[in-house]
UniProtKB/TrEMBL annotation:
Keyword DNA damage in annotation: yes
One GO MF term attached to the UniProt entry: mismatched DNA binding
Domain of life: Eukaryota
Domain DNA mismatch repair proteins mutS family: 1061-1252
GO biological process, alphabetically ordered: DNA repair
Compositionally skewed regions (Low complexity) per UniProt: 28-44
Region (Disordered): 24-49, 160-183
Entries under InterPro entries matching the protein: DNA_mismatch_repair_MutS-lik_N, DNA_mismatch_repair_MutS_C, DNA_mismatch_repair_MutS_N, GIY-YIG_endonuc, MtDNA_mismatch_repair_MutS, P-loop_NTPase
Pfam families documented for this protein: GIY-YIG (PF01541), MutS_I (PF01624), MutS_V (PF00488)
UniProt entry keywords in alphabetical sequence: ATP-binding, DNA damage, DNA-binding, Nucleotide-binding
Native organism: Discostella pseudostelligera
Keyword Cytoplasm found: no
Gene3D superfamilies cross-referenced by the UniProt entry: DNA repair protein MutS, domain I, P-loop containing nucleotide triphosphate hydrolases
Name assigned to this protein: DNA mismatch repair proteins mutS family domain-containing protein
């Protein structure tokens, strides 16, 4: 463009000559020689046009805005001849040049700042290529994720989505479902073309790093040929979200030109910033007209391992691959970058390659799955052991080619890697109570009656269905318990736009939790504050997979709506998981044995034939519905045989909304006190915290809540029996998964034994040994009712369950060694091993560490009676010791003492000559013994390592080598046998139907432990179990006897007693405790409704409610483009939709985010609607105009005006009492509160001065009320005013102060109330003013200084003995009485600010 001469893109003069140096007129003009732009001549020393960033951006948009007259007129801003006569070709040249200059400037700026986070390797790629990749990105992001919000890229993408582009699926499980076909392009061609301007603008605003990332996905290829597979668009978002400079620097090495699904280029240089860009420019795009070479010809040379990785990555394009390589798991390309970013690993050799040791694989997987990633883990077949290879002094052994297979696809739903866990030690066991359960797959089915939420636990194979939810309730559940990726969404049948691409699908998904978060990054998270050991609140990587309504199971006789919803979502989840299995080629060994396990955990278990998992394997554990006749899938099933909810009353409490849960401390807001932390002692286990959290977020049905109330009450007040140990391990779904996969270790089985034994003890808490356990007033009956609700089981009594527990215990105890258990099993007869299962010990001949290393991994796990071959190990160990004693120690005669220790008396060696090789599991010596006979020297030779390499510095003998080989083989066989026995035990438990007993025992222990811990904590805090009743026609929503804040100790708080008999209109000063009272009351109602203890005293009762709504102060929601007022109105709309006559509502500060007039009007209308709808609760406000609004008679009849009292101490200071009482308060004491919190005194003083101006103008606010009073019969003179003042005060003497008179000195320094009569020659024209003061003389002087009628004012005054606080109250009362009596008041503002005094309203 510049005649081959380079220019400085930062030079305005050179850039201006590049852009404007060619004059285009009628075609005859010659071009200005742009090569002179670098000279110092005065002719070209001036700029031909502006070159600022904004101008360059406008010029760069010419290619997409040339036909737009409005934008085209502003492209060239300097030369008229160019602007008016430039051709389309010239404008395109200028656009291209401007785009390159912008790119160069941004890249140079990044490099000069040495900022790895914003630099890129694409550098000066062609503008046409950049625009093509931009088009791909904008089109593709609609396919891979419409929830992205990253930098400028996300803003432009969201803008594009606003114009349309519905997607059947956001993200998918394979590259074939995310690639773009011709049909899709044709369907969206018009939309793409209509956004050309936006794409060009996006191109100019992207950072160099963003352009570098997007270039990796340019011209993505949809092909079945692995060699042409490029990077899946799924990885756009994770790459753009990288924050570590190391991770971003590795992105430079990625290349799409290698046609590698993970973008790994083994030949990429770690030094050059532009190596990838250079290679990509040299290799033509596959499929283009200019491409003649085969795509595979561009592939760099790679090892067989890398080829294997690429082949399998093509089958799992949206998963991270971990490949077992010896003692490490390795990843390449994008996968390695994710390990560096999220796991803190270092790249290998500065390349996009990373790995972790085998002992850290679970920790690495936990970090990845908590971020929402899937991880495909590949294992390698074990090599032939060293002792089985051909290995002698003359021969060598080679290593055969390693064979690898897919072991498991680990995800947030199945976070435990089920491989090699059978022989895990107790210390590292994954069943520890600290482990958090896996996330559930979640499906949301939208119907005309609301949303149906289906939660599928892949670990426990259970399903929870909640019907007729609002979008707010769905959002609450998703934030509280983030689902596994992806989230399934089924639109309603009536959604005519489904699949049409003409409506925004985002508008149909208001429940997505990340819509409520601050746009930090796409892995926004909440920190757990309850110590529940979980990763709840961490949204992580999340996609939405839309299922067509046609996939919903059709109604059938006998098939309930709940079952239909379950089948729909479970089948979708199994299809998703099955996609990983089908794409994986089985190894020859697996195909021959038909042993590949198709299950939700994707585990391949050898020698085990398993059928495919179906929806029938998943049990419905509990459901939540607001109506027994609700329709889950859009149809009403009249033939349903489902009877699960037959006992659910109309007043079943619906799941909490997100705002309600947040305000009550059930979410993760550090600014609000945690409710769960207040319910349990600090020593309570994390599963109990998780149980209570879900219990409150999804309130149980009435009968289950009553059972919990009975259980807690008995444990708290009535039970005088000792309880079984509450230390039984709470087994999570991981244990069930381990058993199904045959990976449960001996430590896991011991934990299961403890859980089963404790459950047996629980079953007998109310009965004698003969089995009489049917006691309705005992612990077991309510405990079983809660258990049936929590697990979905029906009809099991204590006796039946105890028998199933004993059967499972008997099977486990017959195999697993119980010597290491701390608990003595009381409910079965069992014997410990008679033969001690100890590690071999034969003295100092062989280092004890050698025997420990070979035997500790399998010893002490299985009883000797369950093994057939392990007993040979001591014999082999003894033979090995004898061989070493003779050949290495020089012992001539083998003797043992009484303890079986080999004696070394007479040995030629005084110190141990034996050397251990831990890496190769060898025993050898460093040199041939000096005492050996010359004829026997040849018996010593160099051993070989595990790879067959000769160890030149070690010696051994044939006898030792053979004995060592036999011992190692015996240990290996024993290990395999122990592993096989434990695996078979797991399978026997599954085949014998004992999983249900294990599952029930765990939940039974958890429920009792939770209730017991809660009862103990409540006793310590003085909490009580309030009575809950259905209410009938009662108007009272509850009687709260001394309710206090749940996060405070009773001795340090103020309690309130009241009858919630209507809708409280609560007014109070700032910081007086009204919000605390509302939150405390709502929490007490929720706890009581769920059957738990609450911070109230005995005698309290709560009417059962169908919905609880708590609305606190607002804040902006930038992610939803909502102001604080907009968010407030959205919550109120939800309140009015979901609440009715059986609802409890607590609303605070509605309408303060807008003008006082509009806010007061809206708040009044909302309050009236709530009261007319017979809602009960509290409505707090500082908009005091709401007190004067004319409400309907129906609304007025249920409104109860309440206030928070204040008091004055002996020094005249106003104090908050935090006590609820009847009345109103119209003085918020804002200035006093501001002063207490450190606002400068000057501000307080000025605010007080300005308040007088407000008072004089605010009198008009009550004018309409005053004018409604008939004044015709009122005697409005100073005598009548004196009478009113005397009656109000009730005592004291009125002092008359004529015009120009001063007040008596005796009144100075004393509180007084005075009335002024100002101006007028007749009664009708006189005006009146009421005030209070401690300095009457000064106040009269101030009033008279106003001039005119004020100078001749007449006054009356009375002393108030009780002080300033009472004087203010009397002032307000007198103002009200005078106004209602028809006096022409100058100001009535203080009449709405009555302070607390006796029974006077505020």
């Amino acid at each position: 463009m510049n005649g081959g001469t380079p220019i400085n893109p930062r030079s305005p003069r050179q850039v201006s000559h590049l852009l404007y140096g060619t004059i285009v007129g009628d075609g005859s003009n010659e071009s200005v020689d742009t090569t002179t732009s670098n000279s110092n001549s005065n002719t070209n020393a001036i700029n031909l046009g502006p070159t600022d960033k904004a101008t360059l951006r406008r010029i760069a948009m010419v290619s997409s805005t040339y036909n737009n007259e409005e934008s085209g007129a502003n492209i060239i801003v300097h030369a008229d001849s160019i602007d008016n006569g430039s051709t389309e070709k010239e404008r395109e040249r200028q656009s291209h040049a401007a785009a390159l200059v912008l790119q160069c400037r941004e890249l140079l700026s990044s490099l000069n700042d040495n900022d790895d986070d914003t630099s890129g390797s694409t550098a000066l790629a062609s503008t046409s290529s950049e625009l093509d990749s931009l088009e791909y990105m904008e089109a593709g992001m609609e396919r891979i994720g419409d929830t992205m919000s990253i930098s400028s890229v996300s803003k432009s993408i969201d803008a594009m989505q606003a114009n349309g582009g519905n997607s059947d699926e956001v993200g998918s499980t394979s590259s074939s479902s995310t690639a773009f076909n011709d049909d899709w392009d044709v369907e969206h061609k018009e939309e793409i073309e209509s956004n050309a301007t936006r794409q060009s603008a996006l191109q100019s605003t992207m950072s160099p790093y963003e352009r570098m990332v997007m270039d990796l996905f340019h011209n993505n290829i949809d092909s079945d040929d692995v060699s042409t597979k490029t990077i899946d668009p799924y990885w756009i978002e994770p790459l753009l979200s990288l924050t570590k400079s190391t991770s971003r620097s590795l992105v430079r090495q990625l290349s799409r030109s290698t046609f590698c699904p993970m973008g790994y280029d083994p030949s990429a240089s770690t030094l050059s910033l532009f190596s990838s860009a250079t290679k990509q420019q040299q290799i033509p795009d596959v499929g283009s007209s200019s491409s003649t070479a085969s795509p595979t010809a561009t592939l760099p040379s790679s090892t067989s391992l890398l080829s294997y990785v690429r082949t399998n990555k093509a089958s799992h394009t949206d998963a991270i691959l971990l490949i077992r390589v010896g003692d490490f798991y390795e990843s390449y390309g994008i996968d390695a970058i994710m390990l560096v970013e999220h796991c803190g690993l270092n790249p290998m050799g500065g390349k996009a390659r990373a790995g972790c040791p085998i002992m850290n694989v679970q920790a690495t997987l936990d970090l990845l799955t908590k971020k929402g990633f899937r991880v495909a883990v590949y294992e390698e077949e074990q090599q032939q052991p060293l002792h089985k290879r051909k290995n002698n002094g003359n021969g060598g052994g080679g290593s055969k080619l390693k064979t690898r297979y897919l072991a498991q696809v680990v995800s947030s739903a199945n976070p435990t890697y089920m491989h090699g866990l059978v022989l895990n030690s107790e210390d590292g066991d994954v069943s520890s109570s600290a482990s958090s359960p896996g996330r559930s797959y979640v499906g949301v089915i939208e119907t005309n009656a609301g949303y149906t939420l289906v939660e599928v636990s892949a670990e426990e194979r259970t399903v929870m269905v909640s019907e007729r939810l609002t979008s707010e309730a769905v959002a609450c559940r998703l934030v509280a318990y983030p689902p596994a990726d992806p989230l399934f969404y089924v639109p309603p049948y009536s959604n005519e736009s489904f699949g049409s691409g003409k409506s925004r699908r985002l508008d149909r998904l208001p429940f997505l939790p990340w819509r409520h978060q601050q746009p930090t990054n796409f892995l926004a998270s909440y920190g757990s504050q309850d110590g529940d050991g979980g990763d709840y609140g961490t949204v992580g990587k999340m996609r939405v997979k839309t299922l067509p309504p046609s996939l919903v199971v059709s109604p059938k006789p006998g098939l309930s709506d709940v079952e239909r919803a379950k089948q729909t979502i479970v089948s979708a989840f199994l299809r998703l998981e099955d996609g990983y299995h089908r794409s994986e080629k089985l190894s020859v060994k697996e195909e021959a044995n038909d042993d590949y396990l198709t299950s939700s955990s994707s585990v391949s278990v050898k020698n085990r034939n398993r059928r495919a998992v179906t929806h029938e394997d998943f049990a419905i554990v509990s459901t939540s519905s607001s109506s027994s006749s609700s329709s889950v899938c859009g149809h009403v099933d009249t033939d349903s045989s489902e009877t699960t909810h037959s006992s659910i009353a109309v007043a079943t409490t619906r799941p909490l909304h997100l705002e309600t849960a947040t305000q009550l401390g059930l979410m993760f807001d550090p600014a609000l006190p945690s409710l769960i932390s207040s319910l349990l002692p600090e020593s309570a286990p994390s599963p109990s915290r998780r149980f209570l959290r879900r219990w409150l977020l999804i309130p149980p049905p009435p009968d289950v809540a009553d059972a919990m109330s009975q259980l807690v009450r008995i444990l708290k007040d009535e039970n005088d029996k000792a309880l079984p140990s509450l230390s039984a391990p709470p087994l999570t779904g991981k244990v069930i998964s381990l058993i199904r996969a045959g990976q449960a270790s001996a430590a896991v089985h011991c934990e299961i034994l403890s859980s089963l034994d404790a459950a047996c003890e629980i079953c007998w808490l109310d009965g004698d040994i003969d089995g009489s356990t049917d006691n309705d007033s005992g612990i077991v009956m309510p405990l079983l009712k809660i258990l049936h609700h929590d697990t979905g089981t029906k009809g099991s009594n204590a006796t039946t369950m105890r028998k199933s527990f004993i059967d499972a215990m008997t099977m486990i105890a017959s195999v697993v060694s119980t010597q290491s258990m701390d608990r003595v099993l009381k409910n079965i007869e069992y014997e410990d091993d008679v033969e001690s299962d100890c590690i071999s010990h034969i003295g100092a001949v062989v280092p004890p560490a050698f025997f420990e290393r070979n035997e500790a991994v399998w010893r002490g796990r299985v009883k000797a009676c369950a093994l057939r071959h392990a007993h040979i190990v001591p014999t082999k160990a003894k033979r090995l010791a004898e061989a070493i004693a003779v050949d290495f120690w020089g012992v001539e005669t083998i003797t043992y003492d009484d303890d079986g220790v080999l004696q070394l008396s007479g040995a030629m060696e005084s110190k141990s000559p034996v050397v251990q090789d831990i890496f190769n599991n060898l025993l050898a010596i460093k040199s041939v013994p000096s005492w050996i006979e010359r004829a026997k020297v040849d018996h010593y030779f160099h051993p070989r390592d595990r790879n067959g390499k000769v160890l030149r510095t070690r010696y051994t003998t044939e006898r030792v080598q053979e004995a060592l080989s036999d011992y190692v083989e015996a240990c290996s066989n024993a290990r395999e046998e122990v592993e096989s026995v434990l695996t078979q035990l797991s399978w026997d438990l599954v085949d014998g139907g004992h999983l249900s007993a294990i599952f029930l025992s765990s939940h039974l222990n958890l429920i009792l432990a939770t209730a017991a811990h809660h009862a103990a904590s409540s006793n310590a805090k003085g909490w009580s179990v309030a009575k809950i009743h259905d209410g009938g026609d009662e108007t009272s929503a509850g009687y709260f006897n001394c309710v206090w804040p749940y996060w405070m100790d009773r001795s340090e708080s103020v309690s309130n007693t009241f009858d919630l008999n209507g809708l409280f209109l609560l007014t109070a000063p700032n910081m007086s405790g009204k919000s605390t009272l509302m939150r405390s009351t709502a929490a007490a109602a929720l706890l009581t409704g769920c059957g738990l203890c609450a911070p109230v005293l005995p005698g309290s009762s709560v009417r059962r409610f169908d919905s609880l709504f708590v609305r606190g102060a607002s804040a902006d929601v930038p992610t939803e483009d909502k102001s604080a007022f907009g968010a407030e109105m959205g919550d109120v709309a939800s309140l009015l939709r979901s609440c009715g006559s059986r609802s409890l509502v607590f609303v605070d500060e509605i309408g303060r985010g807008t003008s006082p007039k509009d806010g007061t009007s809206l708040a009044g209308a909302i309050l009236e609607q709530m009261s007319e709808s017979l809602m009960s609760g509290m409505f707090a406000t500082h908009l005091h105009g709401i007190l004067e609004l004319p409400y309907s008679a129906a609304a007025e009849s249920r409104l109860r005006k309440k206030r928070m009292a204040i008091a004055e101490d002996s020094q005249g200071q106003i104090n908050w009492t935090y006590t609820l009482e009847d009345g109103v308060c119209t003085n918020s004491l804002a200035l006093l509160t501001a002063s207490k919190f450190g606002l400068p005194e000057s501000i307080i003083k000025r605010a007080s001065e300005l308040s007088k101006f407000w008072d004089s103008n605010s009198s008009e606010q009550m004018e309409s009320v005053v004018n409604m009073i008939d004044r015709s019969t009122v005697m409005n003179d100073i005598q009548y005013a004196t009478t009113i003042l005397e009656e109000t005060v009730g005592k004291g003497r009125i002092i008359q102060i004529p015009p120009s008179y001063m007040s008596p000195p005796s009144l100075e320094g004393k509180s007084c109330v005075y009335i002024l009569q100002i101006g007028g020659s007749n009664t009708s024209s006189m005006r009146y003013y009421v005030g209070e003061t401690d300095s009457l003389a000064r106040r009269l002087s101030d009033h008279r200084s106003k001039g005119k009628d004020w100078s001749a004012l007449k006054a009356i005054a009375i002393e108030i003995d009780e002080g300033k606080s009472k004087a203010r109250s009397i002032e307000s009362l007198v103002i009200q009485k005078l106004a209602k009596s028809g006096f022409n008041m100058i100001s009535i503002a203080d009449g709405r600010s009555i302070r607390s005094w006796n029974d006077a309203p505020y």
